[in-house]
Fold these 3 entries.
Entry 1:
Amino acid sequence: MMWKQLGRAFAIGTIAATMSTNIALADQHANQHKDKAGMPPMDANAQASMMAEMEKMGKPGPEHKMLEAQAGKWTTVTKSWMGGPEPAVSNGKAEYELILGGRFLMARFHDTMMGQPFEGFSITGYDRMAKSYNGYWIDTMSTGVYPMNGGTWDEATKSMTFNVEWPNPMGSGTMPYKMVTKFNGPDSMVFLMTMAHEGKDMPLTEVEA
């Protein structure tokens, strides 16, 4: 009985595969005719130009030097404002590593938050097509994945800025946050995260490294 069932299943599968192949070939044939009637095939020069541009966009550029500047091991001092006038202060460490041929910066952050061990992880890169810094952040205080898109670099102030919309910790919906990393030379940087509140930027977290 089992072999009969297997044989029947095999026959049905063969018929289905044959029908799928015939449909795919018909679609391919129709698309070939569509291409001939509509858009002409790309010539060799245009194809080579397109491939060269794709290769260029896929390699790290000068914008990735700003990511490279963060690579290494850092000791950190974190100030966290939890609603009171004075921030809570803690000491931690951060490890930044360039990955995938220098295209992205992977960071791990270890500290304490509200008396509990805290760990955060981020990936940041520069998208040469979109012309912006992008990435995401995750940590042990949440199960969410927080995107960071549209980041910019200001050469005059040596700072990288992200303006994001993340969940509102005091209610539903989202609210704007601003994250600025300022470089004070090769061995010092300061990260400041603020939240818009009543028309002002209210500090949430400051990390000196």
Note: The mean pLDDT is 82.
Entry 2:
Amino acid sequence: MNTRIWALLLGLLMASPGLAPAAKPGYIHVTERIEINASPARVWALVKDWNGLHHWHPAFSNTEIFFGTNNKAGSFRKLTLADGGAQFDEELLGFSDKQMLYSYRIVGDSPLPVSDYVSSVRVMRGKSKSTASLVWKGKFMRRIADDPPPGEDDASARKAIAEAYRAGLKNAKKLAETRK
């Protein structure tokens, strides 16, 4: 067969519903940030306790280190959600007091509609000398690769994580700005 026929057959195959290979999902990236009227040191003091997420994020009722040492890479924590008590585990990948930064990943199953989840929390100087910028970034894939049901597609996964980040950032702002 000549090249034209092969190209025509390939085009027909790709245009035929159900015959073309399903598109695999790619990584979804979410970055949320908030400006806080408090010093970076004050904000970092609030969020740096990797075992204390439940102290500043309203979606969590408990955080418990079950392996390793708090704020040391390689430690594992169990998170408990406030609404219903679902639990899941995370591993601390890196922690820097100097850079006011830590990164972590979800280990195993979670109630979130995501997989391959890696995230970081960072505090930086804000727009003025007396403010801080709190940044939460994540990279993940939707949990169900092929034909996800409604609520578990890319847009829904992105929305769920962005809303979770915003809830935590908003509460951290409130706490940092009211604590003196």
Note: The radius of gyration is 21 Å.
Entry 3:
Amino acid sequence: MNISLWAIIEALSALIETILIFMFASAFFKERRTLRKPLVLTLFLCVCIAKFLISYFLKDSILIILSSTILFTFIVCLTTRQCTVLWAVLSAFIYLLCAIGAELLAAVIISISQTVTFQQVADFTKYRFAALIIMDLLKFLLIKIIMRLRVGSMEVMRSRLWIPLWMLPIFSIFLALQFTIDALSDYSPQTITTLFCIFGLVLINMAVFSIMEELIRRSEKDKRLALLDAQVAAQRDYILQLTENRAQIRQMSHDFKQHVHMFRSLCEMGQFDELSDSLAKLTDWQHDVTPVVLTDNPMLDALLSAKRNLAKKNHIQCHWDIQVPPQMSDLTVDICALFGNALDNAIEACMRSDKERFIHMRVSMYKTNMLTVIENTIGERPQYDGTFLHTLKNDKDSHGLGLISMQATARSLGGELSFEFDENVFRLLFSIPRIPILHD
């Protein structure tokens, strides 16, 4: 291969290596920055030129190349990220380990696929070039894995979206291997174009992966925002319900004074039949507006009373056995969000049923753990695909977040939520551990 072509290849390789160093710094230190974009661009160009000069003129000195990799990574992490010298040194050696691991793995892939020895991979130009391309793709994969581990989001990624994305660079590795070996069999003008296209394949992988990663991340963020909006809306409804109940009680206290005067007048006039009828009406009215005391927790009682009254208006039998501490510190709002969503779903499911409608709920405490079981009749079998429970409503974009919101709330409290169902009954179970109880 002529000198000018090899110089172009080394320049492209230096460009990709510099991009990978900056990507690693961003992945390892997340979003912390200390330099403005013009300074970052200047540093990028300096590192890229230095990498090219070292790799082109000192390509046979492995020690200098490794030392330069450590130095450049140290400088990039220290200047572009808000970190200490110790962390910059640590990041530099971690990147070096990624580079060495990627190079060894690339040599293994070529050795197995081409049935050649490691020495042949190191000696022959076509194998060295193929190893260089595959090594860059592998380093890119390792950097993305480090990013996922550092941000702690590996578990929450939806596999059906991320698995195809992770397969993109893996597929490109074998594609680049085959193209490289075929292209380097001769040195025609088409070969030069193919070699540049192979470098372009690495850059395209970086661009496509990063763009799709950002789109998936935004989609996940939108989903989380929708869940938060649903939780905030539910909490707002519960607070409004509590405020409404208190207003009803104040109104009842005000009206009761008028009733007392009327009762006294009827008694003085001896109109005892009218007095008896008025007392019966007052009893019914008081029963409708007074919250049912189930937990001695004012906010939770207001919520449960409203849901129970709504259920009774829809001819749903309520059998509730609730034993929770009257004071649950600042978790009351989150607990209300769980019960509110659960009972809303149960009431909606019962209303779609033509059979006997009921909601059975049992809440008990075991030490500081709150255990809840809610059973209700259903009109039709839920649509469950093994991962998500889909809403039966027509507007699927605006609904179906209740169960997901409950799962998110339960996890945020350190608890677990599960469900099971058959043709007639849906059963929801959730447990909240370590509820901080305030003692007098």
Note: Residues 162 and 216 are 8 Å apart (CA to CA).
